[in-house]
Amino acid sequence: MRLTGASNVLLAPQRGNQFGTISIEVLTTTVTPNDLWQTFLQQIVDKWTGYRDSKGKLLNARPHWAKEWKGLSVRGQPINNYLKEAAYKGAIQEFIATLEGIARAQGTSVTEMRAVFGNPLLEQLIFTAN
Question: pTM to 2 decimals?
Fold first, then answer.
């Protein structure tokens, strides 16, 4: 478990969390059957994304980008949709605008940057319209 402070990084899981963020990595061994593991992960996601603040509002739960979350669902929708349409709504457009400014300042384009650094997940989450 790791406790971190708030962040101003546009796509950081900690962004906007003025009281800090708790990060917990759940692990298993390689002998755990995949179906059992996936069921367990989904149960944890369901529990953690159901937490509310003191006013009853659901917390804006976001996974660490480099951890295992592919194939999970959050609040009844595929996690990729949740990330794009809820967890990072607004932040993705800010990110694209900032990236365009960086590209311009460096004499390149976002299209060229995507050709070098892009991957299918980034394309779906960031650059594909809903």
Answer: 0.88
